[in-house]
Amino acid sequence: MKIVRRIVKWVLILFFSSTILAVVMYRFLPVYVTPLMLIRLVEQVAEGKSMAMHHEWKPIDKISPHLPVAVMASEDQRFLLHHGFDIDAISKAVEHNRKGGKQHGASTISQQTAKNVFLWPGRSWTRKGFETYFTFLIEMFWSKQRIMEVYLNSIEMGDGIYGAEAVAKHHFAKTASVLTRSECATIAATLPNPIRFNSSAPSRYIRKRSSKIEHEMRFIPSFPKEGEDYDPNTTSGGIYHKKR
């Protein structure tokens, strides 16, 4: 039993030390590849397709300022207010799902970033537990600006397309820095399923969703620079006026 306890002890020490080190390193280093990118390459080979992975890291100041606002309006409106988990959204999702029908999620941008960078896709309780752990770590060691920067560079935005720069070039023939407000809303509208929905050729559903996101962007503040707080005067009302 002593040997078993010793093995468990060192396994836990190795796990916590290596994961914390990885999170601290990614606080400063670009994320050039994620588990999902590698999984997609394997899937492409399995389906007899040519391998394609378009990804180019860009600092957040080289990405259109409309894009952080658009993804917050679409995916996580309370991103600048919570500490990784949106309790209100979780409560509403649980209540809705209890009634049946289409299941609603409440995953924040922080949770999605943790999943994209450190984990594999899936819905198991084991993966969810690791997601919670890594979300806690990145909220502890990273700023909101760093979380958003990594999110916008690592998220899947099309078939073989990852991050803002790649989607800007392949879907809009421009760099991410000059994406318009409307284009950013369209990109955000496809994020629930970027393989099915194409921001370069938006369907009627995506155009309608994009229009709604543009409206919601009025209530999201301009994304603050590193070390700064958000300015409620950059919104037309909404929750960011109430929480200052």
Query: What string, H for helix and E for strand, traces the elements in order?
Result: HHEHHHHHEEHHHH
List the strand order in the largest sheet.
1-3-2
Question: What is the helical fraction, as a range of percent?
Answer: 40-55%
Unreliable sequence segments:
none
Quaternary structure annotation: single chain
* Strand portion: under 5%
Count of alpha/pi helices: 11
Major sheet size, sense and barrel closure: 3 strands, mixed
Radius of gyration: 19 Å
Shape category: globular
Distance between the termini: 54 Å
- The whole-number mean of residue pLDDT values reads 91
Number of strands: 3
Structural class: mainly alpha
Explain the overall architecture.
The protein is mainly α and 244 residues long. The protein contains 11 helices and 3 strands. It has helices at residues 2-26, 35-46, 66-75, 87-98, 109-118, 125-141, 144-154, 164-172, 181-190, 204-217, 239-242, and strands at residues 54-55, 156-158, 161-162. It has a 3-stranded mixed sheet, with helices on one face. The protein starts with a helix and ends with a helix.
